[in-house]
Amino acid sequence: MQTTTEVFPNSYTIPVTWDTMDSAGRKSIFPGDKIVVDPKRKPKKGDVVLVKNTSEITIMEYQHPYLLTRSTKDYKSIDIILVDILGVVVQVIKTMI
User: Fold this and answer.
1) What share of the chain is helix, strand, coil (3-state, %, to 5)?
2) Is the pLDDT of residue 7 over 80?
3) Which positions ≥6 away from 94 have C-beta within 8 Å?
4) In this predicted structure, what is the pLDDT of residue 39?
5) Residues 9-66 pLDDT 10s
6) How far apart are CA 6 and CA 33, in angstroms?
7) Which residues have C-beta within 8 Å of that of residue 2, sequence separation ≥ 6?
């Protein structure tokens, strides 16, 4: 995979189907965009992370000890103990059409 940021070899790209970060200003991520996820990178405050909560996968903002959404919808914050963090979003590939 070619990317404009340095990532570990096992990083991956997936299409976004969630609207949990659609109101994050310049960090907004929309359905249809693609994200590059680095599973080895440790999240720090303000990072966008890919998380798995039981059978659901989504993206949220890491604000220890919580994960926050930046959405136009009314999603609840989640305690990080309740989810698996699958990796840090290191790049967003925008859909332009």
Assistant:
1) 5, 40, 55
2) no
3) 30, 33
4) 95
5) 899 999 999 999 889 888 899 999 999 999 999 999 999 999 998 889 999 999 999 9
6) 20
7) none
Q: What is the residue type of 36?
A: V
Which amino acid is residue 93, in one-letter code? I
Q: Cα(35)–Cα(56) distance, rounded to whole angstroms?
A: 17
Indicate the burial class of 59 (C-beta count within 10 angstroms; 0-12, 13-18, 19 or more): buried
Question: Cβ contacts of residue 16 below 8 Å, gap of 6+?
Answer: 29, 30, 31, 32, 33, 34, 35, 59
- What integer pLDDT is reported at residue 97 of this predicted model? 65
46 vs 48: CA distance, rounded Å? 7
